[in-house]
TrEMBL record:
Cited SUPFAM superfamilies: 6-phosphogluconate dehydrogenase C-terminal domain-like, NAD(P)-binding Rossmann-fold domains
Protein name per Swiss-Prot or TrEMBL: 3-hydroxyacyl-CoA dehydrogenase
Keyword Mitochondrion: yes
Gene: LOC101849680
Main localization category: mitochondrion
Catalytic activity: a (3S)-3-hydroxyacyl-CoA + NAD(+) = a 3-oxoacyl-CoA + NADH + H(+)
Entry EC no(s): 1.1.1.35
Key words of the record: Fatty acid metabolism, Lipid metabolism, Mitochondrion, NAD, Oxidoreductase
Superkingdom to which the source organism belongs: Eukaryota
Subcellular location: Mitochondrion matrix
């Protein structure tokens, strides 16, 4: 085979690899979001490896995925226990949970990061994975608020980097936002969008701007709800009832704040205030700061705007 045709074939092979659908996925972070993303990827036939820091954490993630699956199958296969068990067994059969991130990316087509919302920790992780993952592997972050470009700079694969922003709870929320940075190649964007659809979500595309689409609208709405209560215009309960019955929302803003986590919302708001200090929507919120200072993060700690049985 001539030299030029070898280049041509290799080129096709390389680019063909970038065009082939994503089949093997590694998810780093098995918390609220990582376990949900793993669940929907495994239940749609993808080979999934989930990584977290300790065996105890991944064991807990396995239990939480099984618990969520048991809720899903009751609706998917009503009155058919055999089909329910088969679906759960097949999904769990596609899942490997471990604590070694480097070995977990060795044969990944896609790596989705869903670890703590901390830029330095995300950058450190991606820099390590960039050395370990194959050339064709696409990287994506599930970050709520950090610009994807600020994470991607830690790697040498900006053309194979994007954002996949899923919503909580992942098995129930039908949307995934697909975010591209200027370097994201067409092949990468197409692969990310196809993966979002393959796991059963509706995809939307947005620029790498603050909060992408949903959070840019939802976080200010939730914080404005707190300011409305701070002014004494209405109680948290009445504001929740009003938005559920008056606007058809499944949860009121204070229920949602406690559901997503007050620490997460404060992190997002503080980041946006720092980068745009005069924007009235991003001004610090006293009640939010007080609850977070008291470690009252909402459902995850048993108390936020409301109290929960832990
Ligand atoms: C900040 C981030 O970056 C971005 C975000 O994520 S912002 C947050 C986005 N998410 C939202 O806005 C969530 C809004 N809330 C909702 O959509 C709904 O309240 C909800 C889907 C969470 C719960 O559904 P709802 O009908 O209100 O109540 P619920 O009785 O808990 O669930 C009904 C059924 O849904 C299914 N379900 C709910 N949660 C589930 C889960 N985690 N796993 C599997 N199935 C679930 C179950 O079948 C459940 O029936 P069951 O209780 O008999 O098992
Ligand atoms: N909670 C939400 O509603 C929501 C929705 C969409 C996106 N997000 C984003 O998803 C990401 C994860 O959020 P979450 O709510 O699942 O958090 P979480 O705290 O539930 O889970 C984070 C997990 O990452 C693990 N982790 C941290 N550092 C790690 C490392 N270096 N290597 C491996 N694992 C590590 C932690 O042990 C933990 O299990 C964040 O970037 C967040 O902004 C959150």
């Amino acid at each position: 085979m001539s030299f030029s045709s070898k280049i041509f074939v290799r080129g096709l092979a390389t680019s063909a690899k970038q065009w082939s659908p994503i089949k093997t996925v590694t998810i780093i972070g098995s918390g609220l979001m990582g376990s949900g993303i793993a669940q929907v990827a495994a239940s749609t036939g993808h080979k999934v490896t989930v990584v977290d820091q300790t065996q105890d954490i991944v064991d807990k993630a396995s239990a939480s995925i099984k618990k969520s699956l048991s809720r899903v199958v009751k609706k998917k296969f009503p009155d058919d226990p055999k089909a329910q068990q088969t679906y759960i067994a097949d999904t769990m059969g596609h899942l490997t949970l471990q604590t070694d991130a480097v070995s977990a990316v060795k044969s990944a087509d896609l790596v989705v990061e869903a670890i703590v919302e901390n830029l330095d920790v995300k950058r450190k992780l991606f820099a390590t994975l960039d050395e370990a993952a194959p050339q064709h592997t696409v990287f994506a972050s599930n970050t709520s608020s950090i610009p994807i470009k600020d994470i991607a700079v830690a790697t040498k694969r900006g053309d194979r980097f994007g954002g996949l922003h899923f919503f909580n709870p992942v098995p129930m929320m039908k949307l995934v936002e697909v975010i591209r940075i200027p370097e994201t190649s067409e092949e990468t964007y197409n692969a990310l969008e196809a993966f979002g659809k393959a796991v059963g979500k509706k995809t939307v595309q947005c620029k790498d701007e603050k909060g992408f689409i949903v959070n840019r609208l939802l976080v200010p709405y939730m914080v404005e709800s707190i300011r409305l209560a701070e002014r004494g215009d209405a109680s948290t309960r009445d504001i929740d009832v009003a938005m559920k019955l008056g606007a058809g929302y499944p949860m009121g803003p204070f229920e949602l704040l406690d559901y997503v986590g007050l620490d997460t919302i404060k992190f997002i708001l503080d980041g946006w205030h720092e980068s745009d200090p005069t924007n009235p929507l991003f001004q610090p919120c006293e009640s939010l700061n007080k609850l977070v200072k008291e470690n009252k993060f909402g459902m995850k700690t048993g108390e936020g705007f409301y109290s929960y049985d832990k």
